[in-house]
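Render this sequence as a predicted structure.
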Amino acid sequence: MKLTELVLRTKDGKYVIELWIAGEKSKNERQFDTKKEMLDEIERVISGLRLSSNVCVHKLDNEESPSDKEILDWLDKNMRGYGKGWICRDSSCGRGLRLHETNLPGTKPTVREAIVDAMEKGV
């Protein structure tokens, strides 16, 4: 399966995920009682899918978004163990900024440190 679009929203007090899969004519919609259940399902689903290079992710609700701290903590907690750490750098082929796990020289143990390092280098 190839995921082409992911929509996060709320509906009638529930958290909703809409998944659009390439080749399918309708969306797959799932509802959850808590944000944690929804996030756990997103992680499970995405780990089993091949993402389209132009996948669109939308969040359609008026609820408070996670804080920057929560986002960075989540990234650090969910490191996949690929490489020695994190790096934030320009793409080697000129396609923009990259933040990823790697074995490249200059890795940092946390996402925060990788971002700060890039900022200090003026990336």
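Summary. The chain is about 30% helix and 35% strand. The beta strands are 2-11, 14-21, 28-32, 50-60, 85-90, 97-102.
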